[in-house]
Design goal:
Elements (H helix, E strand, L loop, with lengths): L3 H15 L11 H14 L3 H15 L22 H7 L2
Helix pairs in contact: 1-2, 1-3, 2-3
């Protein structure tokens, strides 16, 4: 099992990518992002961990739907397939 620190690193990376930066942010490789997502899903077992993981995924993959997305009010309907991965995990 991957330690909680891996999840913390993912959240830090998402925050760094979502925040405006004075210097260019280096992109994360697809392989690293995939590995972090897999680990995050394995270690998030409590409701608050799952909620935090889902918010991190939303911010990373669907920033316009994030609480920090700046869209007020939030969209009433989603386009087909939009945030499907987040919704699927949330409804399991």
């Amino acid at each position: 099992m991957i330690p909680l620190s891996a999840f913390t690193v993912f959240l830090g990376c998402v925050s760094a990518l979502a925040a405006p930066a004075s210097q260019p942010v280096t992109s994360l490789s697809d392989a690293l992002v995939s590995k972090v997502k897999t680990n995050m899903k394995q270690i998030a077992t409590h409701s608050w961990e799952i909620g935090t993981a889902l918010e991190a995924l939303t911010e990373f993959e669907w920033p316009s739907l994030s609480v920090f997305g700046g869209s007020l009010p939030p969209p009433v309907k989603l386009h087909s397939g939009e945030a499907a991965d987040v919704i699927q995990w949330a409804t399991q």
